[in-house]
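Q: Got one fold?
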Amino acid sequence: MITTMIFDLDGTLVQTERLKAISYARAAVVLRPELSADAGVAAFKDVVGLSRREVATALLERFGLAETAVSRMAEFNVNTPWQAYVQIRLRIYTEMLADPAMIQQNQWPHNVALLTEARRICRQTALATMSYCPQVQRVLDILGLRDQFDFVASRDDVERGKPDPEIYNLVAHQLQVAPEVCLVVEDSPAGVQAALAAGMAVVAVSTPFTRKRLHKSRLLPESRIVDDPAQLLQIVANIVEMTRS
């Protein structure tokens, strides 16, 4: 029986993956002004869900940014080109997150609606995100969701990120529930893999950045991957009902 619903944040409740894609793309243009920002956003789809280092390294290589990034290392007191690229990108991303309208405009209404429903049908709700605590709290405050979770776990709380199950194990331990009573709502293969490794049920709500990789990963049956937001509430209701029979 499902008693606890756990939500991811980036790409699930908020289109922060889209915002991150834009910030990486704009940072690439800073390093090479002749590049197209649209190309950078498109390229991010191939690396979404990877660590910050992996994303930056992949985009540096793809767009030939390393040489220019080297020239910015001293400015940021870093030792590698990818770190300089990340610092440029973080400046841009921080400015984007400082705009409440930007966050409001990029929430996923279907998943926020599911959170409201989860508060009605489940005993507990939680958030498990690879974003860092200050960013998480700011986003939740802007969206008015701070009080919607019984526990919030962020990147600050674990040593290993998704797809390692550590963060989901932490949530179960903190809420004192068994993994089998938890239903996780994710958007990326890495998040799905983490939740499955923790022994939890998962429904994946795809985004333009994760849809292709979710289906290709075959981590979940097709019935557990939601491409049409209009079907989300019914699919989750069916999963919850199945666990009660």
